[in-house]
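Box 3.1 A note on notation
Throughout this textbook, protein chains are presented in two layers. The first layer is the amino acid sequence; the second is a token string describing backbone geometry. Keep the layers aligned when reading.
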Amino acid sequence: MPSFLSPPLIVMLLLTGVASAQETSWIPMSAEDAPSAREAAVVVDAGGLLVVWGGAVHLGEGRWRFHDDGAVYDPAADRWTTMASEAAPAARAWHSAVWTGSEVVVWGGQAETEFADGAAFDPRKNTWRTVSSKGAPRGRVEHAAAWDGKRMIVWSGVTEERSFLDGAAYDPVTDRWSSIPAPEMPFGRRALKAVVAGGRFLVWGGINGGSSLGDGAALDLESDTWTPIAEKGAPASRAYPGAAALGKRLLIWGGNRGIGGDVARGDGAIYDPTEKRWTPIVAAGAPTPRVDHLLLPFAEGFLVWGGRQKDERRRDGAIHDLEEGSWREIPPAPRAAPFQAALRRGDDLILLTWDRERSWAGRLELKAGTKR
């Protein structure tokens, strides 16, 4: 991994849901043909199928082996299917991906150099198609990406030499890129997060140089204009923050205080871009500080699960009820594993974790019920 990058992350999922949660227990799932252990892969909920692709394995002394393979998990069949290689992107890590409703669009990332290309994968047909590079942003890693309902928006990120304060939007129907304006921010960044909520593309946090950031901006998707995200009441600065859309609001929880992941954060807040106001999240009873975790809107609030603190992988988590301002623990997984992911099934969630090398995998179904 290049020296300017800190320990890489597995891309997490941003989901929506309603109702209160009822837990069941962890059950075994298939690990046969599951992706092998790796870092900085993309993990995407593709309409109820889990798509995992790319990533890298650290070989020591600054050497990495990059992956150009992946697999699709079908929870109904409890089966992994190896992804086709024809027309797939070159091996890479630290790339981004979004689900369009019919395809997983993969873009950017790095192997020996930064990539400014990508491809789109159809999980039902197990086929790839090349994404146009005309008008695409310059190659970069650790950028922000989100789906706005019609386009994949890519913004900021870095190379070995520089950071970017620009981006572009990709329309998979026309296979074309269009430019987006630059916000009035002092510099680009990496290790930030982006979500689409309430007709806005919101970016927050990250790192510039050696400093973590606690600011952000919101792009109005109709007027194509940026406004700063209020800093008063915002969470403390952090890299790799957990981020999700809560209706029209931005949720931030967890992340790193700086580079390296040695000191994680265990707090957060919710930002309302209409009122331009942050509301802190109750800390009492919250999960331990962590980064690289799942942060999923669920029930009357949201769920935090998994992740890591330093080199220790977490296998626990909790559900936060926004109405009651309380946390409730999730049954911990039997063991910690390299991969952690989630799938939406209606209002319910399926948490998944696996370790192919140890032939172990498990899943937990979280049922959404009506509060009484």
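The chain has a mean pLDDT of 92. The two ends are 51 Å apart (CA to CA).
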